[in-house]
Design brief:
The protein is of the alpha/beta class. It contains 14 helices and 13 strands. Residues 414-420 have low confidence and may be disordered. Bound molecules: beta-D-glucopyranose. Residues 15, 18, 156-157, 160, 236, 273, 325, 363, 370, 379 line the site of beta-D-glucopyranose.
């Protein structure tokens, strides 16, 4: 019997743009529809969760979860600079109430990659006033929902681009990105169009500094309105392994994690978001070992990776860890179920060692819009029909729900060897 601590949060994660649909005032909506887009397809109506959010909460609660992570779409709240939508604020406030009514602890992300078009078209995080603008938005949202929320994330994976730089992506993607950004600038008649996922290598340091300042300002704004708030951010992490001398590993850690772990020391938790591991040798990134299972993105599926990231994040920050994302891109749902069970067994070992872990949120509740990959990658515990948008719980959802209900891996047949 692998029992998790009392009060452990078992959640599933979503992000506004990926599930809501029709996020028409956002930077990504604009990019997705550009002829020069690098998106496989536009987000369109997505899972229509802006309208079907109650269905989604019902599904999450029916699985047996006690937490739900979702994000607020800044472009809906502030469609024009300084103009705040009462309708959108009321909408997210209703979701918070809906969570509470169903026994789901809301975990709210204020910025999950997507921004209003006016923000990104004005240089995005490269604008000198970006942290202050973001903090203002945080204040407005917290005034609307802060009294009923404990767990806040200012932003999701501000280090995503850095992580991708070490993932061995083909160079031609850079050319396509430059082309898309130039086309966006020309069409809008602006000088710099920059988003968290989409900027140029020369923007890196300024982006990082501004996002870091944005986190600090956002955190202060949230706490000012809601002094009880527990605030952190979600860090994209790979379980990075050195095989012999691996100078690139040290460089990667400095580039991808240092800033965010430093900031997390003053946060209430560090959000760990992990999907895979990567191995480095003397020449850099190594291929996935022969015979290892891979996810739909070609990365290694390695159940101990989550536990290893949790250990590393805690060692670097000293603060409690909240697993705000972990999942598997696969059309083989049996693999997802096995991956969850095996990964949680390793996570349990970490908790037994005494590391403070607040909860685990699986990515994702629903099959959804997977950014440039469109709707092809499948991460959901719950499938969404392409046409009717009807939700149907997958086997992995049932398995994960049983674990959540039992608050542990107690079920016969669900405690396999620590591997797939
Ligand atoms: C992001 C999610 C994304 C997931 C799977 C994370 O980097 O936060 O938005 O869908 O990975 O790719």
């Amino acid at each position: 019997m692998r029992q998790f601590p009392d009060g452990f949060l078992w959640g599933a994660s979503t992000a506004g743009h990926q599930v809501e649909g029709n996020n028409t005032n956002s930077d990504l909506w604009f990019l997705e529809l550009l002829p020069e887009t690098i998106f496989k397809e536009p987000s369109g109506v997505a899972c229509n969760s802006y309208e079907l959010w109650e269905t989604d909460l019902d599904v999450a609660a029916s699985l047996g979860l006690n937490a739900y992570r979702f994000s607020i779409e800044w472009a809906r709240i502030e469609p024009e600079r300084g103009v705040y939508s009462a309708e959108a604020l009321a909408h997210y406030s209703a979701i918070v109430d809906g969570c509470r009514a169903r026994g789901l602890e809301p975990i709210v992300t204020y910025n999950h990659f997507v921004a209003p078009l006016w923000f990104t078209a004005g240089g995005g995080w490269l604008r000198a006033d970006a942290p202050a603008i973001f903090a203002e938005y945080c204040t407005v949202v917290t005034q609307a929902i802060g009294d009923r929320v404990t767990w806040f994330m200012t932003m999701n994976e501000p280090n995503i681009r850095n992580i991708l730089n070490y993932a061995g992506l083909p160079h031609f993607l850079h050319g396509l990105l430059v082309n898309m950004l130039k086309a966006a600038e020309t069409k809008l008649g602006v000088e710099k169009f920059r988003g968290v996922q989409f900027f140029l290598p020369e923007d890196n340091d300024a982006m990082r500094a501004s996002l870091a300042a944005g986190h600090v300002a956002g955190r202060a704004a949230i706490k000012e309105v809601a002094p009880h708030a527990m605030v952190g951010l979600g860090v994209a992490m790979m379980d990075d392994v050195a095989i012999g001398e691996a100078p690139m590993l040290g460089a990667k850690r400095r580039d991808c994690y240092e800033t965010w772990f430093e900031l997390a020391k003053d946060d209430d938790f560090v959000g760990v978001q992990n999907y895979s591991r990567s191995m480095f040798g003397p020449e850099g990134l190594l291929p996935v070992p022969e015979g290892s299972p891979k996810n739909g993105g070609g990365e290694e599926t390695y159940p101990p990776s989550l536990a290893n990231c949790v250990r590393y994040a805690h060692e670097q920050t000293g603060v409690p860890v909240f697993i705000t994302e972990h999942g598997l891109n696969t059309t083989n749902d049996r693999h997802r179920a096995e991956f969850i069970v095996a990964s949680l067994a390793f996570l349990h070992d970490v908790i037994e060692e005494g590391l403070p872990v607040i909860g685990y949120c699986h990515w994702s509740l629903l099959d959804n819009f997977e950014w440039v990959g469109g709707y092809e990658p499948k991460f959901g515990l719950v499938a969404v029909d392409d046409i009717s948008l009807e939700r149907s719980v997958k086997e992995s959802g049932l398995v994960y729900g049983m674990i959540a209900r039992a608050n542990g891996l107690a079920l016969a047949g669900l405690e396999p060897a620590h591997a797939l």
